[in-house]
Write a structure and sequence with these properties.
alpha/beta, TIM Barrel
């Protein structure tokens, strides 16, 4: 059983030049790289996204922008990820965006996000993680309930390791999102192969 992997960024956790890390992530050819960076204002985010777009294009890797629809349109990035609070109920209210993903934290949110046109979901957090310190994880049963409730791909997030991948795949998830490991792994390609459960070099996909 193999899983799809989205690398999620967090500059503060990166132990090297951030754009150099993006290049290494892109070279590993994950399902996509999600440029999170929620602390940046619109101008700074767009400038960073432009550099990441060019790097990902050079490696044939998919890039997803987070929340900044105007930047996505200006940069020609057709994939956008939104929190549930920003997802519009009409899919056509975001012209120029080919694919929209959404973060969900309940079964009801998952159903509503699919009805509103989301192409995929990120559900979490599934396991305990330092990025959600003090907040109890929702667990694999929650993930299974979300996966049963929708027909679009669901990616688990929160505390995902290679050892935990079988549990989330058995729950019906399409794959996993990883952030801390994506920013710190010595070899992102090795990390990706371990998470995906593949022996060969994975090829880039599109969520």
């Amino acid at each position: 059983m193999t899983g799809r992997v989205i690398f999620v960024t967090r500059r503060q956790s990166c132990g090297e030049d951030f754009l150099a890390r993006i290049a290494r992530l892109a070279a590993a050819r994950p399902e996509a790289i999600l440029l999170r960076e929620k602390d940046l204002g619109p101008e700074d985010y767009e400038n960073l996204a432009r550099s990441c777009r060019d790097i990902c294009a050079a490696y044939g890797a998919a890039l997803i922008l987070h929340s900044h629809a105007a930047a996505a349109r200006r940069l020609g990035v057709g994939a956008l990820h939104l929190p549930m609070t920003m997802l519009p109920p009409r899919r056509d209210s975001l012209p120029g965006i080919a694919r929209i993903g959404c973060s969900v934290h309940s079964r009801d949110e998952a159903v509503r996000a699919e009805d509103w046109g989301a192409a995929y979901l990120i559900a979490g957090h599934i396991f305990a993680t330092d990025s959600k310190a003090g907040r109890p994880p929702r667990g694999v049963d929650f993930l299974a309930d979300v996966c049963r409730s929708v027909s679009i791909p669901v990616f688990a997030i929160g505390g995902l390791t290679p050892e935990r991948m079988p549990a989330i795949l058995n729950a019906g998830a399409a794959g996993a999102c990883v952030m801390s490991q994506a920013m710190t792994a010595a070899d992102p390609a090795v990390l990706l192969s371990a998470l995906a459960g593949r022996t060969g070099r994975p090829t880039s996909g599109s969520v």
